[in-house]
Amino acid sequence: RASAMTNCSEASSRRCRTLSTITLCLLVVVGLAFFSSDLSACWSRCTSWMMSHKTAGPIVFVALFVVLFVALVPSTPVELLAGYMFGCWIGWAALVVAQPLAHSAAFLLARRAGLL
User: Fold this and answer.
1) pLDDT tens readout for residues 61-94
2) 56-95 exposure pattern, b = at least 16 Cβ within 10 A, e = fewer
3) Whole-angstrom Cα distance, residue 91 to residue 81?
4) CA 63 to chain CA centroid, nearest Å
5) Which DSSP category does 15 fall into?
6) In which region does residue 114 sit, left (phi positive, over 0), alpha (psi from -120 to 50) or beta (all else)?
7) What angle do CA 78, 83, 88 make, to 5 degrees?
8) How far is CA 34 from CA 26, 40, 73, 113, 116, in A?
9) What ranges in 36-74 are assigned the alpha helix state H?
């Protein structure tokens, strides 16, 4: 019994270290991208493309929201951006779809990593 508990805690510890390493690498990549000078130009091209495509824009926004949420980017500025880009009602509808998808994706990733 003691060896089974030790194996379980070792496996949990390995999962925790792996997840911590992945999270740290992801934060470093996001941080480097954030402070890159090309990021603002890329972000403006993406937002202008989403604003100009009335049907595909909200769909791409939903996918982008899910990725950013799972990557631990604060969601409030992204939510405000939805209202700015698409207007009140379309932005609201996009968020009604995006938020449950993002929360489900984060939950499933955490469960897959063995945290839940």
Assistant:
1) 999 899 889 888 888 988 998 998 899 999 999 9
2) ebbeebbeebbebbbeeeeeeebbebbeebbeeebbeebb
3) 8
4) 9
5) H
6) left
7) 150
8) 12, 8, 11, 27, 30
9) 37-52, 56-70
